[in-house]
Amino acid sequence: MDELGFGNGLLSTLEPGLLERLAPRPRLVAIARGEVLIGHGQALDAVFFPVSGLIGILAETSDGEAVDSGLIGREGGVGIFEACGSRQFSAEAVVHVPGRAVRMAAAAYRQLFELSPNLRTAVHRYVEQCISETRQTLLCTVTHDMDAQLSRLILEALERGHLGDTLPLTQGTMARILGAQRSTISECLARLEREGVLARKRGALQVGDPAALEATACNCRAAIRVSNDAIWRSDEPSCEAVLAAE
Ligand SMILES: [Zn+2]
What we know:
Bound molecules: zinc ion
Number of strands: 10
Order of helices and strands: EEEEEEEHHHEHHEEHHH
Strand content: 15-25%
Strand order of the largest sheet: 2-6-4-5
CATH superfamily of the largest domain: Jelly Rolls
Largest sheet: 4 strands, antiparallel
Distance between the termini: 8 Å
Helix content: 40-55%
Shape: globular
Number of helices: 8
């Protein structure tokens, strides 16, 4: 396994030796909190594959209202759909949790996509996963209360970012992800804090009672897990299986 691909689910499926053939060669870069990796409406000249940290995708109205449409961690990639399509990014990719990512020129990524049947299979499944999760989140938004949605978000962000028990997401970011007022998020967090489920510490949440948080979270978590298991179930090795074997 090329060490560049180490730790990213999609790149971990690559046939050996392919990354070395790309020009320019992909690089492992640090990604800092608040850094905009791809700007709104920007022509896509690079794509990113996180190996740690979390990246949000922000959609904005012309008068500045913003919604964060999800968190991308080491299971996925940023800009990889658009790089093979319009080559424009219609949102903004911003780092919420710092870490590292493989930065790859968009042209090199298109070359890699052509060269690698394994990557094409993985990206097709990842597309399906993203669509399925978006559908479930829409359903969640209209059917589940904010305590349940927020608990789900915290648990899923911890898992996706491999962050243990501490989530360095701001209340503003959580509000944008859930399409809620920041004050509503603050009230929910205060309630969870009073119940001893978590503590707010210097811009981060520390989860002290994950079982209680799980009990508060909605059943969308289970629905997404079942869907993702079905998407990635195959005779071929899954991203997670490849990662686990490394
Ligand atoms: Zn839900």
